[in-house]
User: Fold this.
Amino acid sequence: MSGTTRAPGSPRDHGLPGGPRLAEFRTALDAARGSVFTRAERIPLDALDRWSADPESGTIRHVSGKFFSVQGIDVTISTDGTTRRWHQPIISQPEIGVLGILVKEFDGVPHFLMQLKDEPGNINGIQLSPTVQATRSNYTRVHGGHAVPYLDYFLERARHRVIADVRQSEQGDWFLLKRNRNMIVETRGDVPPREGFHWLTIHQIHDLLDLDDMVNMDARSVLSCLPLWEFVRASAGDERVNSVVDAWSKTGHRGLHDTAELLSWITDARTRTEVDVRNAPLDRLPHWRRGTEIISHESDRFFDVIGVRVEAGGREVAGWDQPMVAARHVGLVAFLVTYADGVPHVLVGIRAEPGFADVAELGPTVQCVPAEHERGHPEWPPFLDTVLSAPADRVLYDTTLSEEGGRFFHTRNRYLIVEVDSDVDHPGFRWMTLHQLAELIHHSHYINVQARTLLACMATLATTRETGSAGPRTPEPATTAGQGGGV
Amino acid sequence: MSGTTRAPGSPRDHGLPGGPRLAEFRTALDAARGSVFTRAERIPLDALDRWSADPESGTIRHVSGKFFSVQGIDVTISTDGTTRRWHQPIISQPEIGVLGILVKEFDGVPHFLMQLKDEPGNINGIQLSPTVQATRSNYTRVHGGHAVPYLDYFLERARHRVIADVRQSEQGDWFLLKRNRNMIVETRGDVPPREGFHWLTIHQIHDLLDLDDMVNMDARSVLSCLPLWEFVRASAGDERVNSVVDAWSKTGHRGLHDTAELLSWITDARTRTEVDVRNAPLDRLPHWRRGTEIISHESDRFFDVIGVRVEAGGREVAGWDQPMVAARHVGLVAFLVTYADGVPHVLVGIRAEPGFADVAELGPTVQCVPAEHERGHPEWPPFLDTVLSAPADRVLYDTTLSEEGGRFFHTRNRYLIVEVDSDVDHPGFRWMTLHQLAELIHHSHYINVQARTLLACMATLATTRETGSAGPRTPEPATTAGQGGGV
Assistant:
């Protein structure tokens, strides 16, 4: 963790009854490391057991036809007569799985049932995962098979309260049409305990979100769909925290742009931009090298497709082989945040990625791999300098987090939230309030997975911190806020 | 018009300054019939000038590659292991056009700029159309060409107020991936007058919606996106009308289901249902006859693909040939409406149609062609009997309206809104409040075009009627409303 490092062993006592404290959680985590583990060894793509390349298309598939495949695509994205075209490998996994978090109140405090799970791509072993990560065949039970623990809460919703249930995209640069159903369900019934699952408060989860590579991508995605004002208010006794949560809540705040105007901006981008994605042979993609070991770009940028042999403990299956995507460098993902008329706004971009189901989605202010860009080059990302040169006291969040360890190998992004004084305008971006984003997140295909992670991280700003004495880690309204001035 | 017929020549005076009254409008309409006309003559498909069938696929295309094509598809829709499969012709027109209505206040009263337009498929000549119906090449100006009147208001939105801007689907049974951008833009500037365009109040438009085949499908679709409470309240002086509008407005009313629950129902349908659409040769579709004259189903149900030769007055082009879809029978589209806790709810279905961009959309309570169903058969549509046997005083709306006359030939549906006392449950349907639907209509792919027409028609219930003395044509809260009892 960069910036505001807190040692993993320094949890705080929220004084909340009913839930395990973070100290207990750490003990449980240490204990689990002995029984739940995944060891991944890199092996040549061509040596993967039960995977083979189609002789015609080069597509790498499992012999069962299940799981996912790696294929080649030929992408053309046109906007107002400007056209970009490239070829790339991509993971094809068009089916929709379930990512679910179960919620239950203990002594009036909502707790979230989180799983300790290791995935082969994780850089550090176990990470905090949702209650349920289920594939479509799991939840439709087409193939029968081992039941996924707690899945019934998400299938039989009539007896529970649905808080969120929305299909969300995942990395559109790396996944073709991948979406998962992000669900939060609250139950009042007794929930049987199971090894490897833990009830945590939102404050405990927020503490863990401050640690590098601790909360996994699926958990962050689901947590971003949580109505913060309901769950933080319910468990926080701190008036200052509640005032922050109020500032993010749905009512009583107008933004710099009204919602009709923002929706029009999105509609405009989605109609003016055309994304054309065609299949292309994976072993003959221009500018990509298909070796027996890996597939890589001739520039050594972007990512490699690699082979991995997995040995697993605490799982149904003792081991397997699979291809994975491995990013070449750590990425950088950031929101700029500012106060306008006392209301926090974030600077939202809009991105067309080849794997999206609906052309373009809202994204972070910055989403790039700095090591792959040249400063001063026209393609140096807008606002990257603002983020990189921000003084320490304007950096509200700075943590490096892992992307989904079932498909991505040691692939990480540094997530930053940086406060600025000026609500500077840029044609490709819009300042949006958090409650405007919170409304859109309940509908599919609006907010990309990187921006969803940032929203989950931003929620941590509403939590009273243990370190320091300034109370909630929240940007104070800038006294000189207003139009004008550069960022 | 069935039921509450009002002669075309009996407009009422709303006492509104600034706008033409309906009498003036009728005079203008009569005058326009001389200069704006389209004569359509049926000719054999194989005789269409500048259209030809692809020798391999049978797809019927224009020689320029522009406009649209008619192709064959092979459809499989699966839900929870139940699979339906069929083949059919379908119109392919994947590009997104603009349907826009311009709004401007005259003496404090909002007026809508409507165009008098004849389309070759119209059964009765001129219908009321949006200010703008533009194709993508019109608005991106890729091909240059004749400017579309008033289009700039919808392209240069910065100087105006955007009220709605959302891509909406059209008939998913007849169109493959057809969507139009539905826009409502308000201007404060002077708007130059043009022949064939008229400013009408929402009340005048509502009067016209009571007439058979008078307001075209595109206009109804755009009008369904209008925030009713803002525009009816602004121009109605009647307290009773305002109370109806209040009942539909966004705030202060809980529905039988909360919105999170309804969104979950939609997400569930969209993940459990799989729609697989593949190209199939148009001239060899099972159960369809491809003749030289028309393409028709061997059962004489559904629709024909026919050829039409068009002679046009008041248009850029004096004439052209084109294929069209012609329904075999008049369809029936209906909402059931009931009061629950004093709040009006409509019974919403959910439909997977092969041409939809996102699996399934919300639809009417009944959407079918009664002549093609057999009473007593298991596929007799749910709630059709309720609609057909409703006593006259529970029928709040009953008008036969045309579908889009540029693609559909003499293709019409009878639209009904029927009040019932009981909020009966059915697993495939949900009772939703009008404000819940009004929130969803600002996002793409939620509400199908038939349900949008019904929402536009339902808005007429908030308008004081000229005939009768009961004030607003609104369902009164049923005194015995509540659970239980069959419909």
In short: The CA atoms of residues 51 and 62 of chain A lie 4 Å apart.
